From TrEMBL:
It is a multi-pass membrane protein. It is found in: Membrane. CDD domains: Voltage_gated_ClC (cd00400). InterPro entries: Cl-channel_core, ClC, ClC-type_chloride_channel. NCBIfam families: PRK03655.1 (NF002971). Residues 1-21 are annotated as: Disordered. This is Ion channel protein. It comes from Streptomyces rubiginosohelvolus.
């Protein structure tokens, strides 16, 4: 779907710089940034709450009424297949058909037409509730960017359109992670690579305000938490350095396997030549994977990782490894058959499972260190964003003492992933690099 007006870049460049001193240039951006951040958080919260209510109906009330197990293998296959069929039919009927092929989109892209947003939010809600292994980040960010760009161009036509992209992206990311730090880190990688007037922090000022507003809104209403209840890390120790390097590298290799399977899976579903058929087949495949890996491998994975972390010795190394592989396979299938969703949260689940597998194999490896390093490696391969991968890995364990080892573990993992294919396709179905 082409943007409403030509956009110079799919990523947010620097904010506008009206004449005057730096402070006088930045102050007028504060109020728009706060408004955009709050609205972005409310849209995310609304979709999340609606999906949770529908999830309760589909996975608890309905199977109870039918006298079947909510997470029985049969119900998982039926529900995921039905979800694929429902999403396919909705995409066929709604204006704009939910935007471009999700396999070709990233976290922050050029704005879509606002008429696409209702259908996009509807299919996102259905996928989240139906158990699809994707997070809300990509479609919610796309919807918020589209709305902010459309409204901003009408109420403030003198401001460059790209400023609204930056504010909406920052507000949404801040709300997703419950902190503006994540938004600042993601946008800092973009801004650092783009020329533009003003000091770096001047250019980051307005997006940081939007990210702060989004994070505070979400925190005050929903109180999100990403910390896992893992045993406290007592290191660092010299032996932990080797463990960190090996586990992060293993996570990067697992992520790369998914990355290279991505275009292959996309070609398989594209060969079906009909979105409804592709999504129904994808839903069936996800249901079969759920039956294989267990119900914890369903959904976006944020609540499920807390279950795993609450009992790090509750599964064998083989079971943890199986869940990690199943989750990455489910992520690839969901993102290539046509479901709208993001890849960060399911990647975190796969990383947590892999880290706990390492701890189960070698009990001397602290679970907090193993989990954070595995998550780091998987996210580096899937997102190619170093700062947000480090941030997410550190936040999960909530212990600053792991940071030196995480930074060391980043080095071999980055050498494995840099310059290789990415988990995003171009218009011809080829992997970006």
């Amino acid at each position: 779907m082409a943007p409403e007006t030509p956009a110079p870049s799919p990523t947010p460049p620097h904010p506008p710089h009206p004449p005057g001193t730096p402070a006088r240039r930045l102050l007028p951006l504060v109020l728009p940034a706060i408004v955009v951040g709050v609205v972005c958080a409310l849209i995310l919260l609304g979709v999340s709450l609606l999906a949770e209510q529908l999830q309760d109906v589909l996975w608890e009330s309905l199977p109870d009424a039918l006298g079947v197990g909510g997470f029985s293998s049969v119900w998982m296959v039926v529900m995921l297949t039905a979800t694929g069929l429902a999403v396919g039919l909705v995409l066929r009927a709604v204006p704009g058909h939910g935007g471009p092929d999700p396999a070709t989109t990233g976290l922050v892209d050029a704005p879509m037409r606002p008429g696409v947003v209702p259908g996009l939010l509807l299919v996102t809600t259905l996928a989240l509730a139906g158990g699809v292994s994707l997070g809300p980040e990509n479609p919610i960010t796309a919807a918020n960017i589209a709305l902010a760009f459309w409204l901003g161009r009408r109420f403030a036509p003198g401001a460059p359109g790209e400023v609204w992209v930056a504010l909406a992206a920052a507000g949404t990311i801040g709300a997703l992670f419950g902190t503006p730090v994540a938004a600042a880190l993601i946008l800092s990688e973009v801004l650092a690579s783009q020329p533009g007037p003003g000091a770096f922090w001047d250019r980051l000022f307005a997006p940081l305000a939007a990210g702060t507003a989004g994070a505070l809104t979400m925190s005050l209403i929903a109180e999100p938490s990403f910390g896992l209840s893992l045993p406290a890390y007592t290191g660092p120790h010299w032996g932990d350095l080797l463990s960190a390097l090996l586990i992060a590298s293993a996570g990067a290799l697992l992520g790369l396997l998914a990355v290279y399977a991505f275009p292959v899976a996309h070609r398989v579903f594209a060969a079906l030549r009909h979105p409804v058929l592709a999504l129904t087949a994808g839903g069936l495949a996800l249901g079969l994977l759920g039956a294989l890996g267990g119900h914890l491998t369903l959904f976006k994975g944020l609540d499920e990782v807390k279950t795993l972390a609450g009992d790090p010795d509750g599964w064998s190394a083989g079971e943890f490894a199986g869940m990690a592989i199943v989750k990455m396979a489910a992520l690839v299938i969901a993102a290539t058959c046509g479901f709208r969703g993001g890849r960060i949260f399911p990647s975190v689940f796969a990383g947590v499972s892999l880290g706990l597998c390492a701890h189960a194999l070698v009990d001397a490896v602290p679970p907090s260190l193993a989990v954070s390093c595995a998550v780091l490696g998987v996210l580096l391969a899937v997102t190619r964003q170093g700062w947000v991968s480090l941030f997410t890995a550190a936040v999960l364990v909530g212990d600053a003492s792991v940071l030196p080892l995480l930074c060391a573990a980043t080095l071999p993992a980055w050498l494995l992933v840099t310059g290789r294919a990415q988990m995003q396709l171009d218009a011809d179905g080829k992997s970006l690099r």
